[in-house]
Design brief:
501 residues; nine-stranded mixed beta sheet; eight-stranded antiparallel beta barrel; 14 helices
Length: 501
């Protein structure tokens, strides 16, 4: 069953909206009225109405009365059942604004919402009674000047001075079988009957539901790309046992692509994968074992998991301790982490304890290593012995992706973060550049100021990184590669492209 406009389980409504020209014309008219009135409201301070100075008291009275009239009508939008600024259930979704741009809104927690745009900007929305929703930059908590208003009946959003309606998308939820598990998936298609490319979103290592948390499942379709998203086995609405076994996850991805192609039917054009982090090992393997037209890897790796952890540790320490002392410390850290992981968390705790004793008071100690290394360095030995094995459930720590990448004929777009601590990009950049220069169909993009998740960041007073936004060209490059099979390097001034020389 296909659903138009409504996002299941988020808008709090279930019926389809009439798609007739007459209904759409009425929607456009409502948008114009709502946008005008909400612009008045969002320019009004909580204490009252801001009236520009006029040449006469009469002009001021006229302006004041007009403002009151507009606010009276707007109050009907806000106070009406199903339309409330204090927490509109209808807020979630993807909107097309008056200038053609896209903004996606999802719930962050019980009292906040998060917006995202395809230019990489994002903010957290907070609300105070009597005012519009205000936004803070990324995850920093600092105001960014954006103001947002919602209406549920009619269903509109005002982002700063631009009004917009929900993007017209066709959604189909399904369940499909693969290797002893029933997985929950969703195909989201742009409205229409023409062929469109389709991308299958491949998980990272997270346990969260992709159906609930992946904004690309809406942003890509709003940009004209069909998208298939599914919950990884053992997560969300999917059955089976959670695993990080790459061949099993690749089989799941292949089955998801087959379902996406079947559901899209005659509308399916180019079809392939986009995978982030751990998905960077899984998506190329799936494309090697089954048909695909493209692969996009975001903040993934062309080295083994163990080599990646070692590289992250060594780079962090050597960048903080110059000379031979830094090299010695880096090798000591890496050897200890590798011994514990390779023994399935049975041995090596004496080395970890020695590292804590020797370096624990150093100001850089808490900044070294990704999540895995930090878990080993920060946790008591008994906890590590118990919680460690599930942490790497199914992972082959010495898995080498290079045999797949050397022979993969499918066009690939790799996007790496130059300041990624969790998956250090240095050896991966070298290997991918060598493959590209040897004739492999690889396009490599490095965002020098981005970390894991492809987020730019600010550094807090305690040295912690706080995400601010994604790179401006990140979404656009993925969109272009999916739709055209190529990107325009000149449009990505916030990135660099490693050369063969």
């Amino acid at each position: 069953m296909e659903t138009r406009l409504i996002w299941p389980g988020q808008y709090g409504q279930s019926g389809n909206l009439d798609g007739s020209p007459r209904h759409r014309a009425r929607e456009v008219h409502r948008a114009a009225v709502f946008g005008f009135l909400l612009q008045i409201a969002t320019s009004v301070p909580a204490a009252g109405i801001r009236v520009k100075a006029a040449a006469s008291i009469k002009r001021r009275k006229v302006c004041f009365r007009c403002g009151l009239a507009g606010l009276s009508i707007l109050f009907c939008f806000i106070a009406a059942p199903g339309a409330a600024q204090a927490g509109p259930a209808c807020a979630a979704g993807t909107y097309r604004l008056g200038d053609g741009s896209i903004v996606d809104v999802t719930r962050s927690d019980a009292s906040h919402w998060r917006w995202r745009r395809t230019d990489g900007s994002t903010g957290l929305l907070s609300h105070k009674p009597g005012s519009a929703w205000t936004s803070s930059l990324g995850w920093t908590g600092h105001p960014d000047g954006h103001r947002v208003g919602f209406s549920c009946r009619p269903h509109w959003l005002l982002f700063d001075r631009l009004s917009g309606a929900p993007a017209r998308l066709r959604i189909r939820n399904i369940r499909f079988q693969v290797e002893g598990a029933t997985l929950a998936g969703r195909l989201v298609m742009p409205e229409g009957k023409t062929k469109v490319p389709v991308v299958v979103l491949v998980h990272g290592a997270e346990h969260d539901s992709a159906l609930d948390s992946y904004p690309l499942q809406r942003l890509f379709p709003a940009a004209g790309i069909g998208t298939f998203v599914y919950d990884k086995r053992g997560t969300g609405a999917s059955g089976g046992h959670y695993t990080q076994d790459y061949p099993t996850l690749a089989a799941d991805a292949i089955a998801a692509l087959k379902e996406a192609r079947r559901l899209a039917g005659a509308r399916a054009g180019r079809i392939g994968y986009q995978g982030g982090s751990q998905g960077g090992w899984v998506a190329p393997l799936a494309a090697k074992r089954g048909p695909a037209d493209f692969v996009i890897v975001s903040f993934g790796l062309a080295v083994s998991p163990l080599a990646a952890e070692r590289e992250s540790i060594e780079h962090e320490i050597e960048s903080r301790i110059p000379g031979p002392d830094g090299i010695e410390a880096a090798h000591e850290f890496a050897a200890a982490i590798e011994r514990v992981a390779s023994s399935n968390f049975r041995d090596g705790f004496d080395q970890i304890a020695a590292i804590r004793h020797r370096y624990g008071a150093e100001p850089w100690f808490k900044q070294v290593g990704g999540d895995f290394a930090r878990f080993l360095l920060d946790s008591p030995a008994d906890m590590v012995r118990k919680a460690g094995p599930p942490l790497i459930n199914g992972i082959k720590l010495d898995y080498d992706p290079m045999p797949v990448l050397r022979t993969l004929a499918v066009p690939q777009l790799w996007l790496l973060g130059g300041k990624d601590r969790d998956t250090a990009p240095y050896e991966t950049t070298t290997r991918l550049t060598q493959l590209r220069c040897a004739g492999r169909p690889i396009t490599l993009v490095v965002y020098p100021n981005a970390e894991h998740g492809m987020y730019e960041f600010a550094v807090g007073p305690n040295g912690e990184r706080v995400s601010t936004r994604q790179p401006k060209s990140y979404f656009r490059l993925m969109r272009d590669f999916i739709m055209k099979g190529r990107i325009a390097e000149r449009e990505a001034r916030d990135a660099y492209f490693p050369s063969c020389h």
